[in-house]
Amino acid sequence: QVQLIESGGGLVQAGGSLRLSCAASGRTFSTYTMGWFRQAPGKEREIVASINWNGDSTYYRDSVKGRFTISRDNAKNTVYLQMNSLKPEDTAVYYCAANKVATITASMYDYWGQGTQVTVSS
């Protein structure tokens, strides 16, 4: 089993930056694909970014390309989401997720964190 805990959310002005962290338990962390998802009120949960087991392959939804960077440190069992040039439309609860098989589909992920709120003011 994998337990995930997100941190780093908060309130930031448009154009600002935040760095989210997701700390994972479990010896198999280094073999898992990791993803960041977000869900805004009244909207479906959507992929933000994902990263494969060794970090050599990443995926970003179009709206965050060039602004967000996903990374991982397997030695620390941690995945990060650096968010720059934040926009009000980035406001959402951000969730960390882990899965053995690479996917960007939320329903396919086996493990989820509790979420952390990101609010971007205009």
Highlighted features:
single chain, 122 residues, mainly beta, 11 strands, 0% helix, 48% strand
Percentage of residues in helical conformation? under 10%
- How would you state the average pLDDT, rounded? 94
Q: What is the chain-wise order of helices and strands?
A: EEEEEEEEEEE
- The biggest beta sheet, please? 7 strands, mixed
Quickly count the helices: 0
Catalogue the unreliable spans: none
Number of strands: 11
Give the overall form: globular
Straight-line N-to-C gap = 40 Å
Which structural class fits the helix and strand makeup?
Answer: mainly beta
The Cα radius of gyration reads 13 Å
Beta content: over 45%
Structure write-up:
The model has no long low-confidence stretch (mean pLDDT 94). By secondary structure, this protein is mostly beta strands. The chain has strands spanning 4-7, 10-13, 18-24, 33-39, 46-51, 58-60, 68-73, 78-83, 92-99, 111-112, 116-121. The strands form 2 sheets. Strands 2, 4, 5, 6, 9, 10 and 11 form a 7-stranded mixed sheet that branches. It has a 4-stranded antiparallel sheet with strand order 1-3-8-7, with no helix packed on it.
